[in-house]
Amino acid sequence: MTASPRMHPDELDIDEALVRRMVAERFPRWAGLPVEPVASVGTSHAMYRLGAELVVRVPRTPGSAGEIDREERWLPRLAPHLPVPVPVPLAVGGPVDGCPWSWAVLRWLDGANPVVGDLARPALLAEDLAAFVTAMRRLDPTGGPASYRSEALADRDANVRKAVAAVADVIDAEAATAAWEEALKAPEHPGPPVWIHADLQPGNLLVSPDGRLGAVIDFGCAGLGEPAVDLIPAWYVLPASARAAFRTAVAADDATWARARGWALSVALMEVAYYRNSNPRMAATARHVTAEVLADHASPSGGGRR
């Protein structure tokens, strides 16, 4: 049976046989449907198609185990207010032998992950991403949980510097440090926290054949945080030519944009350090993001600065 590639030392052994047994035990009405792994760069959950219309989502590690319950609670409330489909759980299964925590069955959402550097309509995708980010910000924050990335940028300093040292052989460490230190000088977000997805990377976005944003998936990091976190697709997804339009559409002032660039850099550096051997595709994307941020930092325009 095909096992999901391992990326973490405390990761479950997940394969098709386990997923079939989980479905049969908890949801016998779907037991006869075929199961096959989904090729994905996702690092916190393994995904398996269940027939033509469903997908099973299984946490890989104890650290991501609570995300299924969070999504079950919050996505039904958030989904009606968002401009594109999101993966609301249809059913949540309890622990079974081989999986000691909650897992979910969801409706399959069609689309493909955007290919960085080969977007069909980057300007329109920038508009769509801005509309999604803006809609998230406008959600009622009452009772919302803290996002996985709810800390201040300065709280990431030690880990970012550790990551720079770890990947100094594959990036320009001096330039990365200078860009990071500039981001740290930006004023903190002055307002209350807002709803953010917190992980708007290519692997969590689905685009339709016409190049528009078709769906946003994986809300495991979602919660309340500062708005700059959700601007990371400016470097993770969009080319430089579409960045200014995205910035305008989300009404990012100089301080917010500077923090956003710092968030993108910090996430990317830590991903290069952690996944360089276990997930080459993720690490390659993160190296691309690092290069884009450093190019912005070196540019007189500051990557869309108004």
Q: TL;DR?
A:
With 306 residues, this protein is an alpha+beta fold.
Kindly describe this structure.
This protein has 306 residues and is of the alpha+beta class. It is 38% helix and 12% strand. The protein is built from nine helices and nine strands. The strands form three sheets. Strands 1-2-3-5-4 form a five-stranded antiparallel sheet, sandwiched between helices. A two-stranded antiparallel ribbon has the order 6-9. Strands 7-8 form a two-stranded antiparallel ribbon. A hairpin with a 7-residue loop joins strand 1 (35-37) and strand 2 (45-50). Helix 5 (173-184) packs across helix 8 and helix 8 runs antiparallel to helix 9 (280-298). The chain starts with 15 loop residues before the first helix and ends in an 8-residue tail after the last helix. The model has no long low-confidence stretch (mean pLDDT 93).
Descriptors for this entry?
306 residues, alpha+beta, five-stranded antiparallel sheet, two-stranded antiparallel ribbon, 9 helices, 9 strands, globular
Which parts are unreliable, with pLDDT below 50 for 5 consecutive residues or more?
A: none
Computed Rg: 19 Å
Task: Give the averaged pLDDT, no decimals.
Answer: 93
- N- to C-terminal separation? 54 Å
Backbone structural class? alpha+beta
Number of strands: 9
Major sheet, described briefly? 5 strands, antiparallel
Helix-strand pattern: HEEEHEEHHHEEEEHHHH
Coarse shape: globular
**In what range is the share of β-strand residues?**
5-15%
Strand order of the largest sheet: 1-2-3-5-4
**Helical content band:** 25-40%
Tally of DSSP helical segments: 9
